[in-house]
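Translate sequence into structure tokens.
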Amino acid sequence: MGVKVDPVYGAIRNGDSAIPLVAAPVEDLAALKAAMPVPSAETPMPEAVGGAPGVEGTKVSGAGHQHPRLTSTTGPKSTSPDSHVVAATGLATVMFTRSFDLPPGPVFCEVPPATGVMPAQPASFRVESWIRETMTPTPSGKYVGCVVRAWRGRPLPLMTLLSGVLSLTGINGIITGLTGFVTFAAPATGTAFTCIAVARSDG
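Result follows.
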């Protein structure tokens, strides 16, 4: 019965002696290969509060991988003049660049209009309604856009006569002028704005 001898591919000098370099058995190489991480074909997960380490030592991200976007950032476009511009109704429609499972957190910011001249008073925005994947007969599915309502601030009523202001009649006039006066009630027709919608972190 013969004795199995592993092939020697060289040696490492260690003082006056030498340590032979022996090829690893085929089964050891197979086990080592099986334990090596391989590129993952899965889409990277979006960010999470606190993060997550992932599965250790089994998969690695491949070259050119991309993480899904958590936000939708949109604004006026020259190819769509009515996009992100408030109409005479006080409303504007925003379509997100990605869909959301839950209502996102939108942030609106007024930007200079096509004329480049910003109005003196600021604009105020709110979400009037959501646009869902299915709108009839009952809105359902993911959130794909929203209808925005906008107002513009207006100055307080101008009181011109100092003597009238100091009189009882003048004071009554001030009270009458300010009663029910809404600061943000001026029309915002033509207001251009951007919208950043961010995915919620609570669901």
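Note: The chain has two domains: 8-61, 71-198.
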